[in-house]
């Protein structure tokens, strides 16, 4: 797994004393995608949008956190590798409050990073994503740490397989302080209502 490109990250402001929120885009997108949400979110945080380290197969443009073609479609090892790359990028930033906001692939990687290093994250936001299968080193810790997690998804989302949704529905309540909402008629996307709910969730974490 290549390292994240530090020069590609977009920052809302220089890193200071504010808590940090890292934005992780979905498959075939880039760091500019979720960065556009920053003006709709609380100013109590510094926002950094990172670029996933892989390139999807031609003709798909953009970047990806792990392959989703062929037999590796939902391979937890790929999700873990993406999460490890994120943790590597975070390491030089030192000890500070950190939250993750991910969409789709970025959400899966965000949850997996929490599972690898529960002590590193104050909260995680899962937008149209899922929890990877298998076990991770921090799973037992998460049962008592109760990291706050917001999970939003559309009722008409046909991108994330039903079995992944079912697994996440079973897994998250036992491994987080879960706040969840299903948006009627929404596909694999983020709605204005969901952004409002996200903003309220972040305000409570500030």
Automatic annotation (TrEMBL):
Keywords for the protein's UniProt record, in alphabetical order: Hydrolase
Phospholipase/carboxylesterase/thioesterase domain segment(s): 18-204
Hydrolase in keyword set: yes
PANTHER family: LYSOPHOSPHOLIPASE-LIKE PROTEIN 1, LYSOPHOSPHOLIPASE-RELATED
Membrane spanning residue stretches: none
Record organism: Microbacterium nanhaiense
Key word Acetylation present: no
Signal peptide feature range: none
Highest taxon listed in the record's lineage: Bacteria
UniProt similarity note: Belongs to the AB hydrolase superfamily. AB hydrolase 2 family.
Pfam families assigned to the protein according to its UniProt record, in alphabetical order: Abhydrolase_2 (PF02230)
Name this protein carries in UniProt: Esterase
